[in-house]
Amino acid sequence: MQRWIGFSEDDGRGFAEGANIRRLSRIDCHPVEDNAIHLARKLRSFTVRAMSLLDKLERRFGFLAIPGLIRIVIVFTALVWGLMWLNPNFGSALDLDPARIRHGEVWRLVTYIFIPRGIGTSGAMQPLWVVLFLWFLWFIGEGLEQAWGAFRLTLYFIVGMIGTTVAAVFFGARFSNSMLYASLFFAFARFYPDQVIYLFFILPAKIKWIAWVSAAFLLFGFVAGTNSYRMALVAALANYLIFFGPEMIHDARHRGEVSSRRKRYAQSARSEAEPLHKCAVCGATELSDPNLDFRVARDGEEYCMAHLPKTATPAH
Asked: For 289-299, how does the pLDDT look when each residue is reduced to its tens digit (9 = 90+)?
C-alpha cells in the first residue's frame, strides 16, 4: 500500500491526502509504505488465485466429499489386519498388482490402501504397533480435514491413489500405500509444522523435523535411483506437488526477492565507519573531529573551514 502525502493546495499549513493533494514530484513528497500490509495482501492474492480452481471444483462437485474419510480407512485397515492375523496370505489378494488388475481383479485399485504395511514385526507386540499406527493416521486425518474440509481432503487422497496407481502400472513401482500415507504426513506437516509428538513416548520432536528427515531420504532415493524410480516417485507424490507445489515455488521466489533486497540495501547503505564529509586537503572527517564544519567550493571539492580556499565562495 502506497500513499503520497504533501501540502494541500488550499492552505500550506497542514497535510492532506486524496483529492486535495496537488501533483507532487519525488523531491517534495515521499511514499508511506506499510510493508506488512503489502506482503499480507500479496500472499492473500496469490492464495486466492492458487485455490480458485479448487474452489470451483468444490462448488461443482462438493457432494462427492467423504466426511471422515480417514476414519473409514482406519476402520477397514483394522479389519484387514484382523483378517491377515488369521490368514497371512489374505493381503496378497488385496495388494496393488498391475498384472492381476489386467486380468480383471479391479478391486485391487482400491483395496491396497487398507493393507497395514510396515507397522511392526509379527509377534505379541504387533497389535500395539497397529494401534499406534492407526491412532497416528487418525491424528493426521482429523487435522487435515479440519484444515481443508472434507472435499479437499477427499480430492487429495484420490489424486494420491491415482498417482500411486500410475507409478505401479507405468513404472513398476512397488510403493503400495506407503507413499500415499507419506503424502498425508507431508501435508499435515505443511499445516502444523510446530506440532510436537513424542517418539517412543519419550523424545519430543516437531512434525517439521520428522518431515524434513523423511524428505531427505526420499531425495536421496530420487538422486541415487533409476529414471523409472524417479518418475514413479514423482507420480506417487503428485497430490502433494499439485496442492503445494505452486505455494512452495512462490515462497522460494519470495525468499529470493527478500534476500536480494537485503543485499542491495546492505550494499547501498552507508557504513557507520564511512565518513559523509572529508576534507580534500587534510583528509579530516566528521568522524575524526565532530566539531569541524565542511563546505563545498566552486571546484566541486569539499574542504574543512581551515583549508577552504580564500578566493572560493562556498557553493549553495
From this structure: 888 888 888 77
